[in-house]
């Protein structure tokens, strides 16, 4: 039953998270916003279209797109969702997931560079630079989560997190939660780091890298992005909402409420904050590394 509910979560939660963020932003703008299932409609429309590929690209372009999707799916399989059990688990899977994130990003950058476009090269450089600074913060946050369990698996680490840990190491976990939240914004190119709605090539980071993707290939990149944000928010959910119930269906409902609550906060942040200047983003990320480092130190006491 846990696996079935986890599959239902994988198929529905990523779209619901995206739609919730859009709805919150529409609320702040005084608009009704797109239908809740609009991401499904957009994906169906993309997969019905033909693929247009530049003659300057090689097989790397399609390979990079496919590997990006596979990496995103693999990450989901190792992160516990509605309960403490994940689809796969082994000692060191936390490190494996971190490297799968890097692998997906590497092939996405490779696909963008393969187009030979100066704009996509610019976006790739930004993606590589900013992700290089977010990885130390992510590793520090994961080390804090591993913490007292001593086993570097998501299952054992999340099983160790309970409301009591927030009582004994509340400040440390608060800093880790803040760092994870900012990492979600950075890794998924959300405001105030990047504006996913803009199409100004000179200011984009993620969107500029997929300008040459069309039809099903663009659909695959959109699915990869949805799964990636879903994975990061799932990690944060287990840190922020460590409650566990004996009834799996209550856990399932609580999981959805928690995930959508985090999505609402992301929507509020995107609606109330201006975008940070590109040259100031590295400084912002260094502050996040410091926060994650202090948080890890406090949780290990």
What's the total count of β strands? 0
Write down the secondary-structure element order.
Answer: HHHHHHHHHHH
The whole-angstrom Rg is 19 Å
* Global morphology: globular
Helix amount: 55-70%
Distance between the termini: 38 Å
> Largest sheet at a glance?
none
Structural commentary:
This protein is mostly helical and 301 residues long. The chain contains 11 helices and no strands. The protein has helices at residues 2-28, 38-48, 59-78, 93-114, 118-146, 154-160, 163-168, 170-187, 215-240, 248-272, 281-299. It is globular and about 55 Å long. The two termini are 38 Å apart.
Which helices and strands appear, and what pairs or packs with what?
Elements: H1 2-28, H2 38-48, H3 59-78, H4 93-114, H5 118-146, H6 154-160, H7 163-168, H8 170-187, H9 215-240, H10 248-272, H11 281-299
Task: Provide a compact summary of the structure.
Helix content is about 70%, strand content about 0%. It is mainly α.
Which tags fit this structure?
single chain; 301 residues; mainly alpha
């Amino acid at each position: 039953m846990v696996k079935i509910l986890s599959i239902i979560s994988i198929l529905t939660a990523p779209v619901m998270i995206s739609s919730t963020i859009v709805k919150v932003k529409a609320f702040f703008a005084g608009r009704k916003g797109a239908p809740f299932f609009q991401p499904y409609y957009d994906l169906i429309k993309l997969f019905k279209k033909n693929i247009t590929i530049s003659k300057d690209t090689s097989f790397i372009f399609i390979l990079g797109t496919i590997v990006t999707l596979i990496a995103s799916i693999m990450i989901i399989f190792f992160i516990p969702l509605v309960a403490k059990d994940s689809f796969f688990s082994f000692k060191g899977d936390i490190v494996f997931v971190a490297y799968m994130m890097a692998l997906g990003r590497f092939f996405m950058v490779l696909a963008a560079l393969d187009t030979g476009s100066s704009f996509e090269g610019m976006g790739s450089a930004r993606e590589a630079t900013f992700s290089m600074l977010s990885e130390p913060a992510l590793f520090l946050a994961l080390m804090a989560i591993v913490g007292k369990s001593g086993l570097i698996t998501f299952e054992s680490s999340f099983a160790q997190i309970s409301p009591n840990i927030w009582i004994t190491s509340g400040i440390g976990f608060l800093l880790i939660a803040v760092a994870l939240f900012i990492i979600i914004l950075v890794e998924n190119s959300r405001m105030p780091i990047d504006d996913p709605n803009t199409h100004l090539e000179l200011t984009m980071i993620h969107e500029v890298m997929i300008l040459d993707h069309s039809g099903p290939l663009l659909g695959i990149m959109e699915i990869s992005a949805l799964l990636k944000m879903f994975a990061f928010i799932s990690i944060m959910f287990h840190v922020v909402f460590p409650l566990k119930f004996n009834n799996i269906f209550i856990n399932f409902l609580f999981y959805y409420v928690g995930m959508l609550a985090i999505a609402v906060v992301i929507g509020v942040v995107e609606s109330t904050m201006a975008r940070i200047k590109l040259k100031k983003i590295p400084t912002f990320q260094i502050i996040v590394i410091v926060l994650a480092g202090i948080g890890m130190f406090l949780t290990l006491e």
